[in-house]
Amino acid sequence: MHRLKQFIPSSWPGEDTLYQLVLKSSGQFIYASTLIAYVRSSRYHPVERLKIILGLEPNMPYEDLPFSNMDLLYRHMFSTIPVENITMVLKILGLLTLKLGGDHSILPPWTPFEETDTIVAFLSLKLGDIERCLGALP
After folding, report:
1. Are 89 and 82 a contacting pair, CB within 8 Å?
2. Are residues 55 and 9 in the same domain?
């Protein structure tokens, strides 16, 4: 349950809004999943977060870029990262990308970079740095 639930209308988000979100998702479950994580962040008001997403419009027609709304969603989320955190966010995401390479990963399969403590130690961070740097992301 969201900490601001008492300030959210019981009719929210409404059928029209849900229909718009279905169209924006282009049939992608990852869009819906990412959107939900973004909107329900306890640090922000869900109604305001959803308004932001509904206001994002692609520059090109949907048929030219079938995943344009997904691109917009990620672009918006990454644009909210404070400038002073960009370098660390890129290091963290780069490290996770190395680990998630599957059969093509340059890291051995036993490297446990999905554990926050390991990433903190590997990048010589302080406890809480990852959460602080990635705070805007769901």
Report:
1. no
2. yes
| Residue 50: band (very low, low, confident or very high) from pLDDT cuts 50, 70, 90 | very high
Same domain, 107 and 52: no
Is 22 part of any domain?
yes
Rounded to an integer, the average pLDDT of 131-135 is: 82
- Supply the range of the domain harboring residue 103: 83-133
Whose tokens are 């302080």? That residue is: 126
Query: Can you tell me whether residue 36 is helix, strand or coil?
Result: helix
Q: How far apart are the first and last CA of the chain?
A: 16
* 58 and 105 together in one domain: no
Least confident of 9-13, 21-25, 50-54, 95-99: 95-99
Q: Which residue has the tokens 């949907």?
A: 62
Q: In terms of DSSP H, where are the helices of 12-137?
A: 15-25, 29-39, 46-55, 68-79, 86-99, 116-122, 129-133
| Domain presence at residue 94 | yes
In a domain, 60, yes or no: yes
105 pLDDT more than 70 = no
CA–centroid distance for 113 within its chain: 19
Q: What is the mean pLDDT of residues 31-49?
A: 89
